[in-house]
Amino acid sequence: MNRGTFIKIIGAGAGSLLLSGIDLNAESLKYDLKQIKIYDNYVRGVNFRKRDFLLANLNVNDILQLCRESDNIYDQFAIKVMKGNKFLGYIPAFENITLAMLMDQGVKLEASVSKLNNITDSEKYLDNVFSVQVFAKLLVPYRHLETTDLQTKRADDAHDIYRQGNKIK
User: Fold this and answer.
1) How far apart are the first and last CA of the chain?
2) Which pTM value belongs to this model?
């Protein structure tokens, strides 16, 4: 038996033990995928791809693609920002590690243009021209969404599902 198969078997066994004490009625199995924003900042290196950027005709909320470039000689966590076949730039090197690790583990990230600055002179050095927002989907149980009152109350006034109303003295 190889190591990967062994880990899968152990994981399945541990998972069944952890879930054995949980009441798995139909109501508790209802989940929803909630889209959450995990990143929003300017794309770097646009000046070096000026032609593609100008041809892309970006607008706010345009869908973008994120492509890992793990063989990049300058940054092993490089993430290219694309619109179709137009290479627009990179997620900044000092902010891309977590996103790259998520992508490497198969997490599907969705991206779009969140801000677009007006360019008056295309001959000028292009920096901080547009920003990309990145979203991931989080699995959330319906029951929790229905019982929480954080959507209508301040956090201090909402029912605390973790402490069940007990105050710490």
Assistant:
1) 54
2) 0.64
